[in-house]
Amino acid sequence: MAKRHPSFVCQECGAVYNRWKGKCEACGGWNTIAEEAGSASPMAGPVATRPSRAKGRIFPLEGLSGETKEAPRTPSGIAELDRVTGGGFVHGSIILLGGDPGIGKSTLLMQASAALANRGERVAYISGEEAVAQVRLRAERLGLGQAPVELASETNVEDIIATLSQGRPPALAIIDSIQTMWTETVESAPGTVTQVRGSAQALIRFAKTTGTAVILVGHVTKDGQIAGPRVVEHMVDAVVSFEGDTGHHFRILRAVKNRFGPTDEIGVFEMSDQGLREVSNPSELFLAGRDMATPGTAVFAGMEGTRPLLVEIQALVAPTSLGTPRRAVVGWDQSRLSMVLAVLEAHGGLKLGMHDVYLNVAGGLRITEPAADLAAAAALVSSLSGKPLPPDTVYFGEMGLSGAIRPVAQEQARLKEAAKLGFSGAVAPAPRGDKGKKERLPLPASAIQHITDLVAGIAAPRRRAS
User: What residues are designated binding site for ATP?
Assistant: First the structure.
């Protein structure tokens, strides 16, 4: 029998080495390589491979044309969750749900489990981190203690699959969390890259053969990425992140990957005493309580998938007492803020080199689309000049390095949402071509083509008054 050699596996990316190293050459992580039981050869990886068959099975090939059917789904009963997943849980699909500790992942899954179970579906909730009594206490606090959800506290994957295979296959199985699971086919500790990958493979095989939708809860690292090997994200059908700040009541459910639905939709929830409550009109709540007479605030008309969303962007520009000014941003991209500041200095004529700059997206929402450039620039100019922006005006537009304001998609939907909430004006990019000029806008929009137009419209009246 060949002698088994130890393998050293990176716990962040899954790279395999034949000796220990302080830094992983694949992902650059420090002190992430741990020893695991290996195979007969140190280059063969941490899991022994089976000998291949002498002859493969011939399978038929099909063309692109033919009858296609929509994947069968089971609605969860929570509209915001169904919006993100594309209409419900697809039979036999695997969803990886990640989020910070205490953000509300278990609360959301408990509410979805109870909603499905109350409709007569078989739902199993397997907790590897909490005892059954703890899960029951959470259900009682949410008022869901009478829901016929099957609970268990187990970490062995083979035992879980054997139990769930008894009787009618579950419509939904929740594994909380995948980092606590372990399989007997892998000789390593639970939570390691090898165990996470092996456990995920076994659960995926069970889901595909029985048609059960499985949700895997995943831990996240300090930078917000789902812990464990990246290959697990490629193995599952959907990767959903639960975002939010524990200091705010709002929670954002966002699909990072979805094979059976869109990846640009979000679900908005509000944390309350009775659990997570769906927010049907998030724009109204994100704008609630804003100070309209304060300089440095602008309302951004954004889009999250097919849903228009209005949110307040706050900026503070103050003289600095340090040699290097501070640049702090919450809810937006740091490099995007640096670009907007550079364009304002180079083409807008503003002097921001001796000022501290702070930018915040109110409500705990994180904005990723470049259409927020114009709203952020308006808030910065307003804070620097000390002149408040019109409270009934929204801003959106992408800014180029030359200072030109570029048009963005779905302008009609943005303006329609603003008009519905009582706004009477907008500052937006100038339409390109005759097609944009012929469109009837839901509310009047001031078209600007360059960043100098924005600066002149905000700062120039204050200079004339002085």
Answer: 99-106
